[in-house]
Amino acid sequence: MALKALRLVLFLVWWDSAASFNAQFGQPSEYSTPNCHQYSLPGCPRDFNPVCGSDLSTYPNECTLCMKIREDGRDIKIIRSGPC
């Protein structure tokens, strides 16, 4: 019985540390898809609302990230709002 309890405690400690690691380093499951269909090209608004892309580049706003996606054909996600 004590061995099962010890295994459970060790598993829970491991699970918590894995969750902390994923939150700290932004694993792909936490990335969000930019809402590119709301922007009509060829231009983007000049508002400064930076986003960090999964390519580790900072974009001035979501629209400029969408332009990069359309130009390169790559699937770039948003890691977080704000600079990288």
TrEMBL record:
Keywords: Disulfide bond, Protease inhibitor, Secreted, Serine protease inhibitor, Signal. Residues 1-20 form the signal peptide. Pfam families: Kazal_1. Its main location: secreted. Coiled coil: none annotated. GO terms for molecular function: serine-type endopeptidase inhibitor activity. It comes from the Eukaryota. InterPro entries: Kazal_dom, Kazal_dom_sf, SPINK2. It is found in: Secreted. Residues 30-84 form the Kazal-like domain. Serine protease inhibitor which exhibits anti-trypsin activity. In the pancreas, protects against trypsin-catalyzed premature activation of zymogens. In the male reproductive tract, binds to sperm heads where it modulates sperm capacitance by inhibiting calcium uptake and nitrogen oxide (NO) production. This is Serine protease inhibitor Kazal-type 1.
